[in-house]
């Protein structure tokens, strides 16, 4: 039988069916593969986008924390410098509060950058520098408390090792790294969103289900992309706010010098509106032209190449990788001038292409004024020191004259008076013999006065030999050289005395003078005279007391007791030079202690002195 034209053999039909089924299965399989791939890629890219958003947010937190730390450090530095000018303890307390807050922020920053090993050495270095700065400030505070504001200012280090500037430089490096990381992560997030969009276009032949699933995935990714765009917009707004709210003046320029950023601090300090500056002017408008010209000459000499006296002055070193940092004079829009500390750095992309320059300027008017005040105070102190040295030399000359030139005539007067009394005593009447005795007594009294004056003058020049002192033994030793005025030593009752730290020879003179006064002014009591010596310890100080039941004194005149030549009793009542208590006050003051006196006429007197258990700083 003849086969019809166009008819296919069963085997051929089966082959076509198999091929179609294979094509359908292959197409369905491809559709499933494309659908699965699209679904998987959408899921993977959504996770990537979410992770990118988290990384962007993390980087923003790092930048914000670093800026807060720098602002806190600047506040700490301002409070410290104000404290060195005024010496106000409240300023030191505010400074320490900022220092503690800065340490907390540094710890937070260390936690945030644990995912970036390159930042760890900077964190460690900042922590060490912050510790050094706090130690320097505490040392200045201790000097102010113990030696006065001038000593604290002398110890002040505004720049270099121990200052805040190395910390700010490290923070600037950290911000540059994090800003680059933010830019990189933002690009990656945008690229991930773009890859997702392309992935969702594949596999349209997978059917309505694949399209629906792809559409749902697309909606999801669009939602994430919108969230990412909002985060990026927030990041840009936050970065702009950070620049605008920063305490220093931030001025960025294009490579040709045109200003591209002019923050609020710069606007307020210089008196120009940002719209007057951005893309219109260069920093030359608020710089001193003479300073620029002078710096151009200096740079040309240092680098051995010509430097034009213009914008090139600020960019020559940054273009070579070294920030330009120095003090400049800014000129406000009203022509007034003020000093600034300016740091200019180059801005480059990841490929090293120069994008522009950033200048960070800090108004240092207060610092300059403080340094000027310190210089003036140092000059005044130097003048006072020279005057004091002259006075000391005069006092030494006077002491030598007293010791040698006055003692000899007095010895002659006293000696000749005794010789006259011995040789011609029988030939003289009673009145003449009384005159001779008065001559000898007056010469001896003047000799004692000279001795006391020399002792007083030596107090300020003799260095203290501090050592532990057994006050009980020292008082017993002092009692052995006292003039008891005919009284038994039983009139003194000595309680157990706590030890102290000081110069035993000078403290022995204190006891001799106080006990001598107690014996002398209680002598009119006769056998009823009583003298009590006791002591007690109160915290880091020890107090000693000498009390008697003698003639006492009127408290209205207590301010005269410790003055030189100040006496509350006539010479014919009680002998004395009026120097003993002045010596007591000087010795105790040199030990960092204080003296007190209380009395009542006819009811006795009480003298006490306090000493620190440790030598004052």
Automatic annotation (TrEMBL):
Lineage, top ranks:
Bacteria, Pseudomonadati, Pseudomonadota, Gammaproteobacteria, Lysobacterales
Question: Which residues span the membrane?
Answer: 20-40, 198-219
Q: Which residues form the PAS domain?
A: 235-280
> What does the UniProt keyword field contain?
Kinase, Membrane, Phosphoprotein, Transferase, Transmembrane, Transmembrane helix
Q: What is this protein called?
A: histidine kinase
List the EC numbers from the record: 2.7.13.3
Give the highest taxon in the source lineage: Bacteria
The species is Chiayiivirga flava
Task: Report the top EC class in one word.
Answer: transferase
InterPro entries tied to this protein: BphY/WalK/GraS-like, CHASE3, HATPase_C_sf, HATPase_dom, His_kinase_dom, HisK_dim/P_dom, HisK_dim/P_sf, PAC
- Output one GO BP term: osmosensory signaling via phosphorelay pathway
> How is this protein annotated for GO cellular component?
plasma membrane
Q: Which reaction does it catalyse?
A: ATP + protein L-histidine = ADP + protein N-phospho-L-histidine
Q: Give the Histidine kinase domain ranges.
A: 401-615
Q: Which molecular function terms from Gene Ontology are attached? A: phosphorelay response regulator activity; phosphorelay sensor kinase activity; protein kinase activator activity
């Amino acid at each position: 039988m003849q086969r019809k034209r166009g008819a296919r053999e069963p085997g051929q039909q089966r082959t076509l069916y198999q091929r179609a089924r294979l094509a359908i299965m292959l197409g369905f399989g491809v559709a499933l593969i494309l659908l699965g791939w699209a679904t998987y890629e959408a899921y993977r890219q959504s996770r990537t986008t979410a992770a990118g958003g988290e990384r962007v947010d993390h980087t923003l937190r790092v930048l914000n924390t670093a800026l807060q730390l720098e602002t806190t450090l600047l506040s700490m530095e301002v409070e410290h410098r104000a404290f060195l000018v005024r010496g106000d303890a409240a300023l030191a307390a505010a400074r320490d509060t900022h220092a503690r807050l800065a340490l907390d922020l540094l710890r937070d920053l260390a936690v945030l950058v644990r995912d970036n090993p390159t930042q760890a050495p900077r964190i460690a270095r900042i922590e060490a520098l912050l510790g050094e700065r706090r130690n320097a400030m505490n040392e200045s505070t201790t000097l102010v408390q113990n030696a006065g504001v001038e000593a604290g200012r002398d110890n002040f280090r505004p720049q270099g090792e121990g200052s805040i500037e190395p910390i700010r430089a490290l923070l600037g490096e950290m911000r540059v790294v994090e800003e680059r990381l933010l830019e990189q992560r933002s690009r990656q997030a945008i690229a991930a969103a773009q890859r997702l969009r392309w992935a969702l276009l594949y596999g349209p032949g997978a059917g309505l289900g694949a399209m629906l699933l792809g559409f749902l995935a697309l909606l999801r990714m669009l939602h994430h992309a919108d969230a990412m765009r909002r985060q990026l917009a927030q990041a840009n707004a936050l970065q702009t706010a950070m620049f605008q709210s920063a305490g220093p003046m931030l001025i960025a320029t294009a490579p040709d010098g045109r200003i591209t950023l002019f923050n609020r601090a710069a606007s307020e300090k210089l008196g120009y509106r940002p719209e007057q500056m951005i893309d219109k002017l260069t920093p030359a408008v608020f710089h001193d032209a003479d300073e620029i010209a002078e710096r151009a000459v200096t740079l040309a000499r240092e680098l051995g190449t010509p430097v034009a006296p213009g914008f090139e002055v600020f960019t020559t070193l940054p273009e070579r990788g070294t920030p330009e940092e120095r003090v400049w004079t800014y000129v406000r829009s009203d022509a007034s001038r003020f000093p600034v500390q300016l740091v200019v750095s180059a801005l480059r992309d990841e490929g090293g292409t120069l994008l522009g320059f950033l200048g960070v300027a800090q108004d240092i008017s207060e610092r300059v004024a403080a340094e000027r005040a310190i210089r003036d105070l140092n000059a005044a102190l130097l003048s006072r020191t020279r005057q004091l040295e002259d006075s000391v030399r005069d006092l030494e000359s006077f002491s030598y004259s007293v010791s040698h030139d006055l003692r000899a005539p007095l010895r002659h007067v006293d000696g000749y008076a005794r010789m006259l009394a011995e040789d011609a005593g029988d030939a003289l009447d009673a009145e003449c013999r009384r005159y001779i005795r008065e001559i000898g007594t007056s010469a001896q009294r003047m000799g004692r006065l000279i001795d006391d004056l020399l002792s007083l003058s030596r107090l300020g020049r003799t260095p203290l030999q501090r050592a532990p002192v057994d006050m009980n033994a020292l008082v017993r030793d002092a009692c052995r050289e006292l003039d008891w005025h005919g009284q038994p030593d039983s009139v003194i009752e000595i309680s157990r005395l706590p030890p102290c730290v000081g110069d035993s020879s000078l403290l022995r003179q204190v006891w001799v003078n106080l006990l001598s006064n107690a014996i002398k002014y209680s002598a009119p009591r006769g056998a009823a005279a009583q003298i009590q010596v006791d002591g007690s310890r109160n915290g880091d100080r020890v107090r000693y007391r000498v009390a008697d039941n003698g003639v006492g004194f009127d408290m209205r005149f207590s301010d005269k007791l410790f003055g030189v030549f100040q006496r509350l009793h006539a010479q014919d009542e009680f002998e004395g030079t009026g120097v003993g208590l002045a010596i007591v006050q000087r010795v105790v003051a040199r030990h960092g202690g204080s003296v007190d006196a209380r009395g009542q006429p006819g009811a006795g007197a009480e003298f006490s002195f306090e000493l620190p258990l440790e030598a004052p700083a």
